[in-house]
Design goal:
181 residues; 6 helices; mainly alpha; binds zinc ion
Length: 181
């Protein structure tokens, strides 16, 4: 996994690119939830599922299909007054899908683990992207608060933090220019 901080930053950055009218606290909070919750699958091994099982860590809960199911579920529960096939409904679902899917995408760029089952449950093969540049985060919170955690945050600041800041700054500039014209 990449750390929950990095996944959350990606969700907030992406949310800032969406129309201003949807950018409420609930929108970002749910985006962060979608971007971080796939890692709850680390508890699946307590239920007897191994890492390499389709329900194990980085399995189905990190897949594109799960991202879509989660996005639709979150949209229906938290924005039930907005029809899902309306423009706003589709925008919200797209954002939650992006947040959830981004989780697997960034995990597939980490230096450890077994890769991400993007196409589970149809295909449990684990994949990495060609660029494995982000230091893998420890599974336990206690291990995170130490030298390992610091190295992870440093690598994420470089590979996720700086690009997010560039996107946020670019977005801010574009909106400022648009408001003036
Ligand atoms: Zn993960």
């Amino acid at each position: 996994m990449a750390s929950a901080f990095a996944h959350s930053l990606v969700a907030v950055t992406a949310g800032k690119l969406f129309p201003s009218k949807v950018q409420q606290f609930k929108f970002f909070a749910l985006g962060i939830f979608c971007a971080t919750s796939p890692d709850l699958d680390v508890f699946m091994h307590k239920l007897g599922y191994s890492y390499s099982h389709v329900l194990g860590h980085r399995g189905f809960f990190h897949s594109l299909l799960f991202s879509l199911i989660l996005a639709i579920f979150i949209k229906i529960i938290f924005y039930y007054k907005t029809p899902i096939m309306s423009k706003l409904g589709l925008i919200l679902t797209a954002y939650f899908f992006f947040c959830a899917a981004s989780h697997g995408f960034f995990d597939a760029m980490t230096t450890g683990g077994r890769g991400v089952a993007f196409f589970a449950p149809f295909d449990n093969a684990r994949h990495f992207l060609p660029w494995r540049v982000i230091r893998v985060s420890p599974m336990s919170v206690s291990q995170f608060f130490g030298e390992w955690g610091l190295r992870v945050l440093k690598s994420e600041a470089y590979w996720i933090g700086i690009p997010c800041m560039v996107v946020l700054f670019g977005n801010w500039m574009v909106r400022k220019v648009r408001r003036r014209s």
